[in-house]
Amino acid sequence: MAPQIPSGNSTLVVIPTYNERENIGKALSELLDNVPGVDALVVDDNSPDGTQNIVVERMKQTPRVHLLRRPGKAGLGAAYVAGFHWGLDKGYSHLIEMDADLSHNPRDVARFIESLKTFDVVVGCRYMPGGGTESWPLSRQLISRGGNLYAQWILGLPYLDLTGGFNAWSREVLEAIQIDQVKSVGYAFQIELKLRAHRLGFRLTEIPIKFQDRQWGKSKMSFRIIREAAIRVLYMRWITKNAKPALSPAPTKEN
After folding, report:
1. Which residues span the domain enclosing 224?
2. Alpha helices, DSSP H only, in 118-222?
3. In what order do the strands lie in the sheet with 38-44?
């Protein structure tokens, strides 16, 4: 018997959280009120601030919200892998990554869904015409720009925003890229997923997004995450070089 999606919708937005009490309620409202036909899965790493309580209350109001409880903080990559597995097991055909802190505009999810009609992977891009970052200090802009240029150069990828975390995936891609083998976290996790999809021949495109720095709560970015990304990118150069091409056409970019 085929898996049964609780609400009947085919798209799941996966939202990892850790201490996002100030943001998660508004993020869910913005998403559900403005993008019909999607469900939301909050993957919470046992937040001590009561994030889960807010999600549970929202679940009482609508079948479109779900909660995956994890025993402790284990990193962004592991949270997404757990959320992807939950969505695939439930039968969703498209899964979208989105931050809980409103740095990603939930209303943009509709544009991702539209692009998934043509492409296998849709990448939210801050560094193409129409995209950008807001309220970032110069130091963070330099780290982000430099990280993307470094990954592009080492891996030979044509995409402008490899480190961004606002992305959409067809279930065929997530099943093919063997997400359990992706051990990276943070920036490196996002890079590795895109690299694996590209090396397998899936169709990737980028669409412009505006990234707004969080207004409430603390950023999860750290020097450890940046260092891990730099080292992992060197390793990634070889991990999927022997991957067999998928049946999809070569990757294509959308202007």
Report:
1. 11-239
2. 138-155, 171-176, 186-199
3. 65-69, 38-44, 11-17, 94-97, 167-170, 121-125, 204-208
Q: Please check whether residue 59 lies inside any domain of the structure.
A: yes
The number of folded domains in the chain is 1
- Report if residue 248 sits inside a domain: no
Q: How far apart are CA 237 and CA 218, in angstroms?
A: 32
Split at pLDDT 50, 70, 90, the class of 237 is confident
Residue 83 lies in a domain: yes
Q: Residue 173: inside a domain, yes or no? A: yes
pLDDT tens, residue by residue, 212-221:
875 544 554 5
Distance CA 86, CA 213 (A): 29
- DSSP letter at 58 equals H
Does residue 1 have a pLDDT over 90? no
Residue 187 corresponds to which amino acid? Y
Would you state the structure tokens that stand for residue 144, as one six-digit string?
A: 């982000």
Q: Which residues contact 238 (CB under 8 A, 6 or more apart)?
A: none
CATH number of 45's domain: 3.90.550.10
How far apart are alpha carbons 62 and 60 in whole angstroms? Answer: 6
CA distance 236 to 188: 9
3 state DSSP class of 160: coil
Contact indicator for 204, 123 with CB cutoff of 8 Å: yes
CA–chain centroid gap for 250, Å, is 22
> What would the pLDDT profile of 126-135 be if each residue is shown by its tens digit?
999 999 988 7
